[in-house]
Write the structure tokens for this entry.
Amino acid sequence: MSDSTNGATKLPSPVPAGTSHREERFALLQAQTRRHFLRSFTAGVGSMFLGTLGSPFVSTVGAAERGIDGSPRLEFTRDPSHPLSVLPPQFAGRAKRIIYLHMAGAPSQLELFDHKPDLTRLDGQQCPASFLAGKRFAFISGVPKLLGAQYPFHQSGKSGQWISDRMPHLEKHIDDLCLIKSMRTDQFNHAPAQLLVQTGNARLGYPSMGSWVIYGLGTENQNLPGFIVLVSGGNQPDGGKQLWGSGFLPSVYQGVQCRSHGEPVLYLENPSDVSRPLRRRMLDAVDEINRQAYAEFGNPETVTRIAQYEMAFRMQMDATDAMDIHKESPAVLAAYGANPAESSFANNCVVARRLAERGVRFIQLYHWGWDDHGTSAKDSLNIGFADRCRETDQPIAALLTDLKARGMLEDTLVVWGGEFGRTSMRENRNGQVMQFIGRDHNPGAFTIWMAGGGIKPGMCYGETDAMGYEIVKDPVEVRDLHATMLYTLGFDHHKLNYSFQGLEQKLTSVKPARVVAEVLA
Amino acid sequence: MTLPVRRAPLRLRLGLLALALILLLCALLILFPPDGLERASWAQFIGRFHLLTVHFPIALVLLVPILEWTGRNPRFSYLHSSIDFLWPLAMLSSLAAATLGWCLARSGAYSGRLVTQHMWGGVSVAAACWLCWMLRGYFHGPRLAYPLALVATVGLVSWTGYRGGQLSQGENHLTEHMPVPLRKLIGLSSGSTALPRSNPAYFYGAHVEPIFITHCDSCHGPDKQKNRLRLDTYEALMRGGKHGPAIKAGNAKGSELFRRVTLSPSDDDAMPPQGKRPLAANEVKLLELWIAAGASSTLPANAIKDAPTNEVPVVAEVTFPEIDPAAVTQSRAPLAQAVGQLKERYPSVLDYESRGSAYLALDASALGPRFGDDDLAALKPLSAQIVIADLSRTAITDRSAPLLGAMKHARVLRLTETKITDATISTLGGLDQLESLDLYGTAVTPASLKVVESLPKLRHLYAGATKIPADASVSDSLKGKLVF
């Protein structure tokens, strides 16, 4: 095609004088060139793609009011300037908030809750071949030896549940706990397994459950983030900050990591020469510019940015107060074993209670260091494991005591767990007998517990085999746990969804998930 | 072929053409019978229209005797003239329906007794229509030939239609819900028709066959054999289907059938297919044990120790309440305006309890001292609608007592660390829906216990950090309800 046909300016008028209306239209159609077509075609495809992305702030024209199953969709649209405002749940749930205690590294269920006398009896025997057939391990090679529990077990409480001697404080709450001994995952490395537990998906880019929860319910305290993350144990969890990321949800729903020692959020305080009114004037100017940008481009992330600045301004007052555990009495600090002068899991538990009181919806505590392979003293069942138990046992028990006394265990769901379980066999890295005792990763079975918030107390659900290696009764997938948690908050996990890339995305992903009705109070 | 010197009448020429079509279809059915294999989706797509078209020829055939009968009355004799048109139409449409039916059966993995009978029934109907058409207008044979053919055709249509119903609705679709007296009258058993078929003294008859009958019979039973697999008898089970043997005796994991029943329900190969109830864990275990033990039909029923029973455990399920938007709007209407205004004034503090509820939840705890008696007074018009009230750490005092006492439907009342005293508690006696009362960190004394005792639904009274001692003597009605 010659260049002379390209572009309206070079073209002579396609409509000769004195033609009829029909001829005129025909001539105009003829004037559409291949390039015209390609230009408008690509824009069309692009806008079709953009249309599928959706956003809770921009109501898509003709957005379906009904989901794929034909039932009415739940609406999560909010005023763009208040993206975290409270929305009622789908139905009246028992829990209002969640405190999730993630023991990063995966604590051994066989040293805490899953009592296996037969395994102790067979300690040191060669592991049966059927344990190894078709299995992949992170480190075990050759034929490992069975490893009995390293600590004695006893029955406790009115419910008579088995527990080891490593958690003497938590044991006092044994009748408040619902143990699930048949958790299962399909990931055997820390980062993807943590992502699966926290986001419902082993790959990056999916919203964490805290993000889903505040997307669905908002948060009561507009001066604090609705989803706060506290990390202890000296290391970040392997899954990184994606564990509390908002994925494809607007970023205003992501978790905010705070420090339990010093300034809760770095640089939250005004610099010494900046007064609060001056800060306000500065923010007003920034807001004005952002609003202009939003008016021009309509990008919801701009709204997120405006809301974040405003929240940071309000947080300067409230967050500092909420995180300041100096305000607790010495008796309370002693009950938790907390020391305000340092950073610890105990401090984080005090903060968790303070945040729960202040209406924070989702509070997540990570404590790193449970990966007891036996490669060194601190990564072994005999030494490091006992230390982790000591660091967490008293604070968790104190947190449960506090919540219970304040009546908050009624509407706070507390969840404790790692990302997978540990093997019934002693780890033999490179086929060697190791100096310290440890276990390898076992995605096939692990134990978590839940307490409060509409969960039946003093019970145990699910069962593993005599070696504690595989589940023999009532397996619970991670997505089943998610569905159950959302149910206690008042949601059908199918209905808490968000249209993205042509799919009604949800925390439980696409595989069928089951609410574990047996554990509901 | 002999060429007629004189051109045959139009009806005869058309008739011969139609007969050729019928014979062509017959040849098709004989050469390519439905064999239980799944084929191209186009044929299946077209085939599905069989269900739509099939009722048309039925109606036409049934119309003929009505017209014949009515037309005998001289006033309606003109009806007779349309019958000569109806017959060829019925023949052509049944031919078309039969062809579509063949497409469906051939591509949709059907095989078995029922589908064969239904198929040949359909072709016979077309042929019978052709015969009636010829008899009525052309051959003028013996006097009774046409009426007999007519009656036979009607019978044939009914029989074929019944077979089709059995194919799609189940074999007993007509008698399934027949009242018991009527059943007795026609000599049907009154109970369910599922009877044990093999000897229950053997493991196969006791544990294995019932699984196949429950889960597999509708597609791999006597009447339908998808992918040529039939599971209702031991011999057929061991013979296998299109994909080869279903069972490898002694090797459960290597058996195709076992592999498919243990796949995730969303897998394309999983059996029973998605949407049907998968096998329960104990049923899978029974199959595994039986195959591992050699998959014999004569293994005694109790030969395998620790074998589970066939009883399917009942799985607890939750139901998610459905929300009817119209009903919700209606139930909220009386107070909608007041709620709207106050929600605006107290955002994130006041809202409906849930999306389907007209009751309200109030949570001022996040506001702390910024929420006081005057604010609670502003919510007065809605007091009776509030079911959950969390006023923890707010600035409310005993001045709010009457407002709290007016929350007739309150289930949960939280007054943690507020300045309220016994004076407030004394007004709460009428809250007969109250389940949880939280007084942690207030100045209430044991004097309040008297009022609290009278609350009929109360389950928890949180009295930590109050003047109520942990060892306070309480009446029987409060025993076990106090939490410190």
The two ends of chain B are 108 Å apart (CA to CA).
